[in-house]
Design a protein that fits this description.
This protein is α/β, with parallel strands linked by helices. It contains 14 helices and 19 strands. It has a 7-stranded parallel β-sheet with strand order 3-2-1-4-5-6-11, sandwiched between helices. It has a 6-stranded antiparallel β-sheet with strand order 14-19-18-17-16-15, with helices on one face. Helix 5 (about 155-165) packs across helix 7 (about 215-225), helix 7 crosses helix 11 and helix 8 (about 240-250) crosses helix 9. It is globular. The two termini are about 45 Å apart.
């Protein structure tokens, strides 16, 4: 079948893509920026990529007519706290306009569980998108899920951060709200199982795991799986806004996502039926099994996708591609060079930078800078990196975004998503003479930008000098 995968570079889309290819389908990936699709060369040779922003006026003809199945995996919850619902409706209506000019038979939409009249803005928007898609000229299948648990999922990473960082927690009262978590593996199996199944046409199904748990119980069970105890006290005094700040500072989530999540965490999300389990003969995994499977992937460094690599986890979103060309006019630079004896080993060190490896010099200073960034509403160092030694263009890397990762030409280019009065780039390049060029470029914004740069010069002298020296120590690459 010819399958259209919207949101192909999102958390779910990246999990679906290899499974669809393994099943022998022809996959057309819809993304805003083709360079943001973090897949290997072999996968890239098997797929077709189309650049479409569903928030913009439809360009009829961009999507091939011979589409059999389409996945609708577009959402805007992390991009805004005010108008994301409007954006989601616009995207859905534009999607319908595109589909009118194809032969698509079935559209599959992953939504959220809706079982209360008093819905959060997030869940109301999910329901509204569902109703909009039902207006389309195709058979719609809707899967409504609660919390998705898997390596790299926002829900799992929040639970992980809370438990690993805070053995004793004073929490908002929403930790007593019940939910029905589901393993990412089961979500993918459900999404694949409904393909072409006529029993699933024009139907909405709830999907969830076998356990109904409060968030407090989920935190306790996580700690038990990890082999430690945690203590949780729920207070009714925390306002939603205060709860959002609490999540933002303690976990790796962005503030916008935290605010929208807290709004939804006050509402129980429990499945109403098990019809789809019976139709597809799928027995979902328990919450404990979901955690164990997630850690199995983490230990093997096989995390396929992470919500943190999404552009919505950063500051600059889709316009980031304009920063690939590093400017020269009006910029301030710190350039260090060093002759290297073993370029391939040095390149390995460069490709491991950030995350658990750190920045090769003055990590405590980087952590302070990350903490300050978080205090003023930036991303901080909380995102880390998805893989310890693999980098794709578009990946999040601590408070940087990967603009270019060209291992053949020995060049890595990062763009700062921390809050600074200007724009900043960090580039590593080993030339044909085996000289490593490490260049920090800053384009200041007004007087504040220049004052910022010159105030940081003493730190740059030590940090960037120590960084290039330690990167060139080839024994690090074997650690």
């Amino acid at each position: 079948m010819n399958i259209l995968l919207t949101g192909a570079n999102g958390y779910i889309g990246m999990r679906l893509l290899p499974r669809l290819l393994d099943m022998g389908h022809n996959v057309i990936c819809c993304v805003r920026n083709a360079k943001r699709l973090s897949v290997d060369a072999e996968t890239l040779s098997k797929i077709k990529i189309i650049e479409i922003d569903f928030l913009e006026e439809p360009q009829i003809g961009k999507i091939p007519k011979d589409i059999d199945i389409a996945y609708y995996l577009i959402h805007s919850m992390s991009s805004s706290t005010t108008d994301f619902d409007e954006k989601e409706e616009v995207s859905a209506r534009n999607f319908n306009s595109y589909m009118k000019h194809t032969r698509v038979n079935q559209v599959i939409y992953l939504s959220g569980i809706v079982n209360e009249n008093n819905l959060s803005k997030h869940l109301w928007s999910r329901k509204n998108v569902e109703e909009t898609l039902y207006e389309g000229s195709y058979n719609l299948t809707v899967l409504r899920a609660a919390i998705i648990v898997g390596s790299g999922s926002a829900s799992f990473e929040i639970i992980r951060d809370l438990c690993e960082k805070l053995p004793f927690m004073v929490t908002p009262k929403w930790v007593l709200t019940k939910s029905q978590p589901i393993a990412i593996r089961d979500v993918i199996n459900f999404l694949l199982g409904v393909i072409g199944n006529q029993k699933c046409y024009n139907e909405s199904f709830d999907i969830g795991g076998p356990d109904i748990l409060t968030y407090k119980e989920m935190l306790h069970q996580y700690a038990k799986v990890r082999g430690f105890k945690n203590w949780i006290i729920a207070l009714p005094l925390m306002t939603p806004k205060l709860s959002s700040y609490w999540l933002y500072f303690v976990t790796s989530t962005s503030y916008k996502l935290a605010l929208n999540l807290v709004d939804s965490m006050k509402i129980e999300v429990i499945t109403k039926d098990k019809r789809l389990q019976e139709i597809l003969s799928i027995k979902p995994h328990t919450y404990t099994e979901a955690i164990e499977m997630a850690f199995s992937k983490i230990k093997q460094n096989r995390v396929v996708s992470s919500w943190k690599d999404s552009m919505i986890s950063g500051r600059f979103k889709k316009e980031l591609k304009k920063y690939v060309e590093v400017p020269t006019y009006g910029c301030l630079k710190d350039e260090k060079t060093k002759k290297v004896k073993h370029p391939e080993l040095v390149l390995k060190n460069i490709w491991r930078i950030g995350g658990d490896t750190g920045w090769y010099y003055g990590d405590w200073l980087w952590k302070i800078r990350g903490f300050i960034d978080k205090l003023i509403g930036g991303v901080g160092l909380r995102r880390g990196r998805t893989s310890p030694d693999i980098i794709y263009e578009g990946d999040a890397l601590d408070f940087w975004r990967v603009l270019l990762a060209d291992k053949n030409n020995k060049r890595l280019l990062l763009f700062a998503e921390m809050r600074v009065p200007g724009e900043a780039w960090l580039e590593f390049n080993i030339d044909k003479n085996n000289v490593l060029h490490q260049t920090a470029t800053f384009r200041p914004r007004g007087l504040a930008g220049r004052l910022y740069w010159y105030s940081m010069l003493p730190f740059h002298f030590f940090i960037f000098g120590g960084m290039i020296r330690n990167i060139c120590k080839v024994d690090r690459s074997t650690n």
